[in-house]
Design a protein that fits this description.
By secondary structure, the chain is mostly helical. It has one domain (2-152). It is 74% helix and 0% strand. The longest helix is centred in the C-terminal third of the chain and has 28 residues, at 125-152. It comes from Tetragenococcus muriaticus 3MR10-3. The chain crosses the membrane at residues 38-60, 67-85, 97-116, 128-153. This is Aminobenzoyl-glutamate transport protein. Pfam families: ABG_transport (PF03806).
Amino acid sequence: MGNYIVLAFFAGQLINYFEYTNLGTILAVSGADLLESIHLTGLPLILGFIVVSGFINLFIGSASAKWAILAPIFTPMLYNLNIAPELTLIAYRVADSSTNVISPLLNYFPMILIFAQRYDKKAGIGTIISTMLAYSMAFLLTWTILLIIWFLFSIPLGPGAGLTL
């Protein structure tokens, strides 16, 4: 719980600075303009967001802290490009859930390492990451394909929650 409190404190500070300076709004609007000018919208944009979220997941272990940092920028940015906030969250969760197990900053990573060392005394961080990398990529590919199918067939995400605006 102590880790969460520290992360929540710094995430709160970052969000407050973003609000105070309007940096989040500036980044969201400028980013949306840039993405629109290079014609990166729709499905390619969602796939790019999945890649970015998965990469960031390797450096920030807490899902809630990561979302607290990413949401104020990417939700309005993608909203300006007609991507529903619900779809932004789902794309984030696809990347986050798939790459958690290969992130050494995951809260449970030491526990996973201890369990692995029970069966292989030489197991280390590299052993866990290299072992789980194939599974992580398989999950990422499977969830991404499912999201692509969902997007191509325009299946609603829930009651009153479409994919686009």
